[in-house]
TrEMBL record:
Domain of life from the UniProt record: Bacteria
Native source species: Shewanella schlegeliana
Cleavable signal peptide: none
Protein name: O-antigen ligase family protein
Coiled-coil ranges (or none): none
One term of GO molecular function: ligase activity
Membrane-crossing segments per the record: 31-47, 54-72, 78-98, 105-125, 168-189, 195-221, 233-250, 321-343, 355-383
Keyword set, alphabetical order: Ligase, Membrane, Transmembrane, Transmembrane helix
Length: 392
């Protein structure tokens, strides 16, 4: 591979990151989508072979054609569908352009750089009381969330949540999700200083103070370090029943964690926690919309309008979002993921690690809205590419 190709592929990964929960995406969506669209056009003009299969082909049909049908309902639906089509097409052509191992190496490198930069700044701001962030401009997104803007790293402007490392992304939960996927993927490539990379990525997960991130980290490390199917099953079952036991039987442990780690654990015990309410209500609202129009769904924007009518809820369930927006064919989003993990012929996953990958994605895709996140589509496309067909 020549140097020009390496630089281009690194640029593709960076562009994918811009549409994967980047903190400035909600503030400058048109500019970032334009960047993604131009990158897509550039790749397409240099694309020699398209790699696809039945599942991906049907999914693309759903996004492009069923999406257009729902666009007839409103201009809002049309705008949302165009945005989704740009993201999905870019992700698809990247999979046809970049070999899997190369993408994984670039993705891990990207997350490692973000982790190192953010950890250094996080430590200076929170432990040494250096006001380095005060020299940065403050920006606000549509939810009135303020950030000190470093363009490739961000720090919350509110001192009440500055202890949470958000890295390159608009919220710490997204950062922790992509960090734990990077740890999972370290097993798919040969890396120098693999253990050091895993430690740095894990430290970054801890600095997010994301409850789900800690669970995902445990699963990623389990897939990475445990060997032998029986050993993996034993560790997984032991961990599961230990969590159940601690939750049901040990009030002392619960009080200890609430006292010393309130930022992480209180959402489990406070009934009005917005985080829990949103993640319970989101799939319910999506499935209700699906039942109203199971054939073609209600459309992307119409589903968002339903949320506004229901109350102050946030979309968090990506899987059920596809059902609500696209109807029964929206199931192909989940089918692709199942085929690429649980029922995989993908050589990088054995049966156990495929199940772990699916559980991780199940958590990630139902705690955050990944409908417009390139990194997520790219990974699902790679994993589900079995019985590959190539077209010139």
């Amino acid at each position: 591979m020549n140097e020009r190709s390496k630089i281009a592929q690194g640029f593709y990964v960076f562009v994918a990151g811009l549409s994967s929960g980047y903190a400035l995406m909600p503030i400058y969506p048109s500019y970032i989508l334009l960047t993604v669209a131009i990158a897509t056009l550039f790749i397409c003009t240099n694309l020699r072979v398209v790699r696809t299969n039945f599942l991906i082909s049907v999914f693309l049909f759903v996004v492009f054609f069923i999406g257009c049908i729902t666009s007839i309902q409103s201009i809002g639906n049309l705008t949302a569908v165009i945005k989704l089509q740009i993201v999905v097409l870019f992700s698809f052509v990247v999979v046809s352009t970049v070999k899997y191992e190369r993408f994984v190496s670039l993705y891990i490198t990207f997350m490692l750089i973000v982790s190192i930069v953010s950890l250094v700044l996080y430590t200076l701001v929170n432990f040494f009381d250096f006001n380095i962030h005060s020299y940065l401009p403050i920006i606000y997104n549509e939810n009135d969330m303020g950030y000190y803007n470093g363009f490739v790293f961000f720090i919350f402007s509110s001192e009440y949540i500055q202890y949470r490392n958000t890295g390159f992304f608009w919220e710490p939960g997204i950062f922790s999700s992509y960090l734990t996927l990077a740890i999972l993927l370290t097993k798919h490539v040969s890396l120098k200083r693999d253990l050091l990379i895993t430690v740095i990525l894990s430290l970054a997960v801890f600095s997010t103070y994301s409850t789900a991130g800690y669970i995902l980290l445990l699963l990623a490390l389990l897939a990475k370090f445990s060997s032998g199917f029986k050993t993996k099953v034993f560790i997984l079952l032991f961990t599961f029943f230990s969590i159940i036991f601690i939750y049901l039987m040990s009030s002392e442990v619960i009080e200890f964690t609430r006292a010393y780690f309130p930022e992480v654990t209180n959402k489990f015990f406070v009934s009005e926690s917005a985080s829990i309410i949103d993640r319970v209500q989101s799939p319910i609202i999506n499935l209700q919309a699906f039942l109203n129009n199971p054939m073609f769904g209600v459309g992307l924007n119409e589903l968002n309008q339903i949320y506004l009518e229901k109350g102050d809820y946030a979309q968090s369930s990506t899987m059920t979002y596809y059902f609500g927006a696209f109807g029964v064919l929206g199931a192909f989003y989940t089918i692709m993921l199942l085929a690429g993990t649980v029922f995989t012929k993908f050589e990088k996953f054995d049966n156990f690690n495929g199940i772990i990958a699916f559980i991780m994605m199940l958590i990630i895709l139902n705690k955050e809205p990944h409908m417009f996140f390139c990194f997520t589509y790219i990974l699902i496309f790679y994993w589900s590419l079995k019985n590959v067909k190539e077209y010139k």
